[in-house]
Structures are given as C-alpha cells and as structure tokens.
Amino acid sequence: TGGWNGTSLIATTEILLLSSPTAWTVASALPRAVEGLTAASLPGQLYVAGGWDGTIYRDEVRTPIITPSIQ
Questions:
Q1: Are 51 and 64 in contact (CB under 8 A)?
Q2: I want to staple 61 with a disulfide (CB 3.0 to 4.6 A). Which of 2, 12, 16, 49 is the partner?
Q3: Interatomic CA distance for residues 14 and 26, integer angstroms
Q4: Would you state the pLDDT for residue 43?
Q5: d(Cα 17, Cα 36) in Å, to the nearest integer?
Q6: pLDDT tens sequence across 31-48
Q7: Are 10 and 23 a contacting pair, CB within 8 Å?
Q8: Residue 1 vs residue 68, higher pLDDT
Q9: Are 63 and 16 in contact (CB under 8 A)?
Q10: DSSP string spanning the chain?
Q11: Global pTM value
C-alpha cells in the first residue's frame, strides 16, 4: 500500500492472497500517494495508518476496500 517507485510516491494497494495458488490482487487506492505507512490486519479487515505525503506526516487511519474475491 502506497510507497515510492523510485520516481514518485504512489497510492496503489495490492494484497497477497495466500490461497492456492497464491496471487496478488488490487484493492482500492489510497486517497493520496504516501510512503512509510503502517498496516495491521484483523479478521476480515486491513487497516493502514500514517505515512509521509511528501509534505507532512499523515495521521489518518484507512481501511482499503478489498475486492470481493478475497473477502
């Protein structure tokens, strides 16, 4: 989720499915591009918090929307 691609900050969210076979899937994008997020997962939900947006450190907690195929 988020990060730095070597050129700019990004806002995408990808999730690794641990089913057989393993695969990456895309979740909803973040509302802004950030890096240095913290993430935690609880049963059925992913939470991401904080991050640097290139100007300030953010203090939001977000819950990306996960595609129905992995809920």
A1: no
A2: 49
A3: 5
A4: 82
A5: 22
A6: 899 999 998 888 878 888
A7: no
A8: 1
A9: no
A10: --EE-SSSEE--EEEEE-SSS-EEEEEPPPSS--BS-EEEEETTEEEEE--B-SSSB---EE-PPPPGGG-
A11: 0.69
Task: Check whether 64 has a pLDDT greater than 80.
Answer: no
Instruction: Tell me the mean pLDDT in the region 9-37.
Output: 85
4 vs 19: CA distance, rounded Å: 28
Quote the tokens at residue 38.
């913290």
Mean pLDDT of all residues in the chain?
A: 84
Number of Cβ within 10 Å of residue 51's Cβ equals: 23
In whole angstroms, give the CA distance from residue 58 to residue 71: 27
